[in-house]
Amino acid sequence: MTEHQDRADAVASLPFVGIHVVCVLALWTGVSVAAAAACAISYVVRMFGITAGYHRYFSNISFKTGRVFQFVLAWTGACAAQKGPLWWASHHRHHHAAADREDDVHSPLRRGFWWSHVGWILSRRYSETDITLVRSLARYRELQWIDRHCLVPPSLFAIGLFASGEALRRWAPASGANGPQLLVWGFFVSTVLLYHATFSVNSLAHVYGTRRFPTADGSRNNIWVALITLGEGWHNNHHFAPASERQGFLWWELDVTHVALVALSWVGLVWDLRRPPQRSASIRPLSTSPVCANRDKGAHL
Questions:
Q1: Could you say which of 51, 149, 192, 210 would form a disulfide bridge with 257 (CB–CB 3.0 to 4.6 Å)?
Q2: What's the rounded mean pLDDT across residues 226-250?
Q3: Which of the two residues, 197 and 10, has the higher pLDDT score?
Q4: Neighbours of 294 (CB within 10 A)
């Protein structure tokens, strides 16, 4: 890696930085019940687009669906403003192929917290999509379109929130909501929360938590990360069985994305949800400490 390639791209970083700065406007818009609800709902819905769509479907093909719902997952994930589904899946597949080794895209064990959390996203090195890693997905023109025009879904989503707020201001003034308020809370604040919750899987779930399986990386199960990402924090489980749709293997490992996908399977929107290996439930944790940040050899088996 060269210092030049890994340096943050100032121009490309402006939207990311700008989204954070705009959140300050919440002090001016104030907050209402409607704005708080918009923030929470848009967070959960778009997080599901990332966890079920970008991660478990596009990156790991852990269940099947039809072309229409595939598009819905891609559009919902893109609304989180984390680039397109092909970009996201290609980099995630590369991560699994080289997890916590020198070529890993975002290993905190190799490059530190800042790089794994956000530095790699802002660098020039990883701005392009490696189509060779996602050929089966790239044959769908609609996915290619979303990947090329990844700012369209979040832009339309933001416009919809503003319009909804203005509608409330006009027809339900008692709500105290308005366009700028729902835009700031429903889009900007929610998006920043989404960013750092998603990024915590890369930066925290390879350093802090427990290890049930001796995977060839530092992946760990972290209940706190699992709670804010609808189940993605069971990361050691995931690296042990990447093709498993369910990431919380045990009954107490809350995996909201899995629960939602099971519900969707009941109405036929998804099917063939791939299960964890049967033997996984009987394996006892290698580390029982809730926080285990040591980087010993056991983390790199």
A1: 51
A2: 97
A3: 197
A4: 11
Q: How far apart are CA 229 and CA 226, in angstroms?
A: 5
Distances (CA, A) of 246 to 70, 206, 233, 266: 18, 19, 12, 16
pLDDT tens for 160-179 read 999 999 999 999 999 999 99
Percent helix, strand and coil across the chain, each rounded to 5? Answer: 60, 5, 35
Residue carrying the six token digits 């890369």: 202
Q: How many CB atoms lie within 10 A of CB 51?
A: 25
Q: Is the sign of the CA dihedral 234, 236, 242, 246 positive or negative?
A: negative
What does the domain layout of the chain look like in residue ranges?
3-300
Query: Do β-strands 270-271 and 64-65 pair in parallel, antiparallel, or remain unpaired?
Result: antiparallel
The dihedral sign for the CA sequence 5, 10, 14, 17 = positive
Cα–Cα–Cα angle for 119, 56, 127, nearest 5°? 30
Q: So what's the pLDDT on residue 280?
A: 61
State the average pLDDT over residues 11-36.
Answer: 94
Lowest-pLDDT range, 46-55, 109-118, 275-284? Answer: 275-284
Check if the beta carbon of residue 249 is closer than 8 Å to that of residue 234.
yes
User: Could you read off the pLDDT of 104-161 as tens digits, one per residue?
Assistant: 888 898 888 998 999 888 888 888 899 999 999 999 999 999 999 999 999 999 999 9
Distances (CA, A) of 278 to 42, 61, 233, 287: 35, 19, 20, 21
Q: Across-strand partners of 65?
A: 270
What are the residue ranges of helices labelled H in the chain? Answer: 3-6, 10-22, 26-29, 33-48, 67-78, 85-97, 108-111, 113-114, 120-122, 135-138, 141-148, 152-171, 179-183, 190-203, 223-228, 235-240, 256-266
